[in-house]
């Protein structure tokens, strides 16, 4: 099955703007594994950056602030957001890997 003006017997079909290869050329399992691996590496690197780099800045700011005002600090909010987003990316990558293994 071809899609979007794909390669047909070595000849390009230039009638459509997108060029693709056969849909069966790369199975969905390989696409899932590659996507999950890339998402895992990027998210893990971002998570480690947040834990190592952003945490030091937050610790220095928290010494001068009372505990009831911690949620209003922009550094702490940025640290929490980075940790939430990157940890969610790692979890989604693990789910994609699991999905690729059971297919």
Task: Tell me briefly what this model is.
This protein is mostly helical and 103 residues long. It has helices at residues 28-62, 74-102. The two termini are 21 Å apart.
Word description of this protein:
With 103 residues, the chain is mostly helical. The chain has one domain (26-102). It is 62% helix and 0% strand. It has two helices and no strands. It has helices at residues 28-62, 74-102. Helix 1 packs antiparallel against helix 2. The two termini are 21 Å apart. The mean pLDDT is 76.
Helix and strand arrangement:
Elements: H1 28-62, H2 74-102
Helix pairs in contact: 1-2
- Residue share in helix: 55-70%
Cα distance spanning the termini: 21 Å
Please tally the helical runs, counting DSSP H or I stretches of 4 or more residues.
2
Q: Report the principal-axis shape.
A: elongated
Low-confidence stretches: none
- Strand percent estimate: under 5%
Number of strands: 0
Total count of domains: 1
Order of helices and strands: HH
Largest sheet: none
Mean pLDDT across the residues is: 76
Alpha-beta content class:
mainly alpha
Question: C-alpha Rg, in Å?
Answer: 22 Å
Any descriptors?
103 residues; mainly alpha; 0% strand; elongated
